[in-house]
């Protein structure tokens, strides 16, 4: 029986949503085609007819994960708000629908260039979003890179350790460090403005 365009689009969305969740939970290498098909409630044939290979599915699922993650934090009004929502116990514990950069970063060096290119795009998108939230006087790509690295590193470490109290402290310490950076930048900005007015 021929599948309609609408049904094919629905199937594709189901595959992408399931694959994006599984890849973030178990890693791209840790998920087989059987699990991907089962998560979508489809056959291998349906999966391969949509994407052709697991590698191409992984590339598309990475973009899907990036889009959904960005939408969840898209209404953050400040870096403080973004950080407060990113470095949470809930985000740490729900890896399957969280940040794709933190979930897959450690395994990317072992994958093909096409998938790494998509991952690099995800990193650039995250840095660009953070750069747009930086306070005046701190709006540089380097500052955004440092903030992104701090957040991703803290979330990765918080998930990796087996001590819940230490995990919570890692998240809290990173939030404090990023907030301190904001305050220092704001103070420096006020100081330079004041000195400029005195000249």
From TrEMBL:
Xref: InterPro entries = Homeodomain-like_sf (IPR009057), HTH_TetR (IPR001647), Tet_transcr_reg_TetR-rel_C_sf (IPR036271)
| Keyword line | DNA-binding, Transcription, Transcription regulation
- List, for all copies, the residue spans of the domain called HTH tetR-type: 9-69
Segments for region (Disordered) = 178-199
For this protein, the record's Pfam families field holds: TetR_N (PF00440)
Keyword DNA-binding, does the record have it? Answer: yes
What name has this protein been given in UniProt? TetR family transcriptional regulator
């Amino acid at each position: 029986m021929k599948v309609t365009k609408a049904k094919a689009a629905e199937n594709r969305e189901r595959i992408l949503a399931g694959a994006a969740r599984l890849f973030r939970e178990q890693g791209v290498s840790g998920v087989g085609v059987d699990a991907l098909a089962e998560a979508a409630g489809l056959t291998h044939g349906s999966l391969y007819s949509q994407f052709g290979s697991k590698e191409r599915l992984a590339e598309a699922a990475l973009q899907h994960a990036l889009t959904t993650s960005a939408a969840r934090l898209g209404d953050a009004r400040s870096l403080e708000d973004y950080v407060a929502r990113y470095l949470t116990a809930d985000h740490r514990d729900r890896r399957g629908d969280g940040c794709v950069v933190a979930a897959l970063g450690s395994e990317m060096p072992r994958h093909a260039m096409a998938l790494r290119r998509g991952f690099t795009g995800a990193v650039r998108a995250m840095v660009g979003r953070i750069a747009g939230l930086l306070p005046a006087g701190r709006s540089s790509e380097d500052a955004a890179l440092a903030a992104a690295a701090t957040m991703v590193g803290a979330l990765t470490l918080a998930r990796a350790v087996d001590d819940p109290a230490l995990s919570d402290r890692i998240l809290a310490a990173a939030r404090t460090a990023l907030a301190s950076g904001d305050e220092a930048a704001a103070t420096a900005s006020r100081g330079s403005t004041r000195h400029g007015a005195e000249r």
